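Researcher: Structure for this, please.
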Amino acid sequence: DALLKKAVKVARENDLVFFFTGTTDVIETEGKDREHMNLPKEHLEVFRAIKDVNENIVVILSNGSALDLREVILDSRGILETWFLGGAAAEATLDIITGKTNPSGRLQETFPLKIEHTPHFGTFPPLVSVDYHHDLIMNGYRYYDTHELEVLYPFGYGLSYSEITYESVDYKKDETSEEAYVTVDVTLKNNSEKDAFETVQVYVSTDVANLSKPKKELKAFKKVLIKANATKKTTIVIPLEAFESYDEVRHGFTVFNGAYTLSVGENSKIIHSTKTFDITDQTRYAPRMDMTYPVKFLELFHPQWFEYIETNFRKLWWHEKEEPIWRVLDRYKRHSKLDKNSADALYHKIKKDIETN
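Model: Predicted structure, token format:
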């Protein structure tokens, strides 16, 4: 009671309050699952008391994962998420709240409205066993977007002391390039007197029939510095690999024919531009491979070399197809008694072929 009265007195006598809160080692630890997303009840008791005497409260968080912040949002002028910064936390925080540093971070996880909305609510903490079969590919922002759930703060969210606008977004598709299959040019404008960073995010979605996919998936992002009152153009390159999905028949990743949509925005919920195009000839696609890839990828994408090995060596066992290409070639060299020059020549010929075609 004495400490609470002291806090209220300090809040009443000052123009601005910095309210430090977050999770404690009782709530958040690596040794167990969290049972709720609430701030400590004692912290909230202090917050309720000081908000009645001071309307200028800035909340500074120290935590390791998402929190239910609905109550503090209503009665605070701003919220600074510092996570667990360690020993230098005070200095870094001071630079931000005094304006020496323009904050530019983005949330790497979604802040849901409540714990009941989280993907595995009811499974964690586990009573006996954990079921990973439901919505496995739709964790995190994929889950909230796919199931159209409102959230407190979306994945990729973050503010700064500057206003950044997306002036234009242009797309260029090049079917001849797997490295730069789509090029996205984004023009950003800083409408403020402070230099600022903006993290441009590119998501991919598809409606290919019979393919279980999230509503959209982050495939590229770029942190861009825009000078005060300046305009900056930046380019993000999207490889063909960004459109791949796992093929259960071929037991590997591939790109299915169909319509794909690129979405460019500042977070998973605020999208400034979309572009839909068709991929109609995925049979030419092969992943960018090296000699550490499993032999089964030779069978799928470079069958001439797989057939060469089986013709000149022997039929490979199923488990050998899961081994790296280099290891099977080494086994082939030893069993067929290839001389070193011939074995090296074969190795480099296959290596060059799979890395360039």
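Researcher: Any notable elements?
Model: The first strand starts at residue 17 and ends at 22. The radius of gyration is 27 Å.
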